[in-house]
Amino acid sequence: MGEFIRWALVPVMRAWAARAGAGLGHVPRPTDAPHARSAGIDSDRVLVFGSGPAVGWGVLSHDLGLPGSLARALSARTRRGVEVDAIFNPHSTARSAVADLRDHDLSRYDAIVVTLGGNDALTLTSVRAWRRDLSAFLRMLVRGSSRSTQVFMMGVQPIRAVPVFDGPLGSIAERHAQLLNQTTAVLCRSLPRTTFVPLTARPGVPSDRFRTAEDYRHWAGLLADSMVGPLGVERPGERESPA
Q1: Is-contact 199 157, C-beta < 8 A?
Q2: Which residues of the chain form beta strands (DSSP E)?
Q3: What pTM value is reported for the model?
Q4: For the chain, N or C: smaller number of CB within 10 Å?
Q5: For residue range 78-129, what is the model confidence (pLDDT) as tens digits?
Q6: What are φ and ψ of residue 114, in 5° steps?
Q7: Does the keyword Kinase apply (predicted)?
Q8: CATH architecture for the domain at 3-231
Q9: How many CB atoms lie within 10 A of CB 47?
Q10: 62 contacts 68 by C-beta, under 8 angstroms
Q11: Category of 209 on φ-ψ map: left (φ > 0), alpha (ψ -120 to 50) or beta
């Protein structure tokens, strides 16, 4: 997409995203405390932050959403306990993310999972602005966390897999999301302790069906497969002390 075409489409996409997003008000989402755990020794401490999958659209409990699904998937692979906290905002963007987490203590986490980009794709945030804002945010996470904290940046989920965005304008947003994902992957490779995790839609699911606990299990599995190597298979007492 040429820059002039993108610029001309921005007001159209913003108006459409606002109208379509209003339909999410009727979609179930968790109302319980944003925490989940999987019992075990030497627990890994994980923070899930962002919009989209972090919010838990489609389920009524964070245990059925990404926090609980990730706790179980990661524990099954490491044989350790997992404690997950979630901080989320349906409207978060790469630009707002620094302010959203600035006052939080990140040093207590072994891993930080970031779910951003859906809102930026829907409103056609320029690749240049995305790279600048996401770089500032990810660098803040690396600086503000301990020397052993691993950061996992999730790719933008397939836009048209969300029923309210499944249409011609959704196709434009999905193509833009692919550009953002490519930029994110390159950026993550340039940063220490930072891994890009592409997301795919769960195969065989009708496009008119909103996400369910099975979708979060699918995404948690993708995440856990990427996390288990960087987190390592440590024995109790071997974890590095925070800086």
Answers
A1: yes
A2: 35-38, 44-50, 82-88, 111-115, 150-154, 194-197
A3: 0.90
A4: C
A5: 999 999 999 999 999 999 999 999 889 999 999 999 999 999 999 999 999 9
A6: -115, 130
A7: no
A8: 3-Layer(aba) Sandwich (3.40)
A9: 26
A10: yes
A11: beta
